[in-house]
Amino acid sequence: DVKVTQSSRYLVKRTGEKVFLECVQDMDHENMFWYRQDPGLGLRLIYFSYDVKMKEKGDIPEGYSVSREKKERFSLILESASTNQTSMYLCASIPQGSYNEQFFGPGTRLTVL
Amino acid sequence: SQKIEQNSEALNIQEGKTATLTCNYTNYSPAYLQWYRQDPGRGPVFLLLIRENEKEKRKERLKVTFDTTLKQSLFHITASQPADSATYLCALTYGNQFYFGTGTSLTVIP
């Protein structure tokens, strides 16, 4: 059974903290994505990566960075968390050359106080 | 940029009826259009994909249509059940980019 896992389901952080969200997939997929989901705004792409050590900005990269040191792991970093980054964060992956079904993780509900 | 609109209102239907959800888009037609189901507090789960040269796709009680002239996809759930209650998202694929709608919340009333 294919799987995308995220390090935390719920996370509470304080303004200014550095936050790491981890995503791991066991499907040997080349492409991985980070989205945030907010009511009325849908899923918005933050960053994606199509290979190890490669990254591309999505629609809303400001305030975020990413790291992809290993194929199976894609990390989202909030350098200095702010209250407007309170959101649901979703990781997804797909194999190279296939832009069909995305496999999503369970999501991390981040609250920044 | 691409704009995707789904039924903005929540949809409530009686068990056993057919639910029809709408996904409209602007600009050029995508190579693929997908539908996902999302339960509260969970990640989306893929349901169906339809290609730009396909008119209709079926899977069990689900049916998707794709009209590139109208720039619209319809998603049908026949013989709906309370377990079908969820938010349904459409997503368009252009090259290596995915664009998601905001989703339609469906409640099937027993």
List keywords for this structure.
A: 113 residues, seven-stranded mixed sheet, four-stranded antiparallel sheet, B: 110 residues, Immunoglobulin-like, five-stranded antiparallel sheet, 0% helix, 57% strand
Question: Can you put this structure into words, describing what you see?
Answer:
The complex is a heterodimer of chains A (113) and B (110). Chain A has 113 residues and is mainly β. Chain A has one domain: Immunoglobulin-like (Sandwich), CATH 2.60.40.10. Chain A contains no helices and eleven strands. In chain A, the strands form two sheets. In chain A, strands 2, 4, 5, 6, 9, 10 and 11 form a seven-stranded mixed beta sheet that branches. Chain A is globular and about 40 Å long. The termini of chain A are far apart. Chain B has 110 residues and is mainly beta. Helix content of chain B is 0%, strand content 57%. Chain B contains no helices and eleven strands. In chain B, strands 2, 4, 5, 9, 10 and 11 form a six-stranded mixed beta sheet that branches. In chain B, strands 1-3-8-7-6 form a five-stranded antiparallel beta sheet, with no helix packed on it. Chain B is globular, with a radius of gyration of 13 Å. The interface between A and B is medium-sized, with 24 and 22 residues.
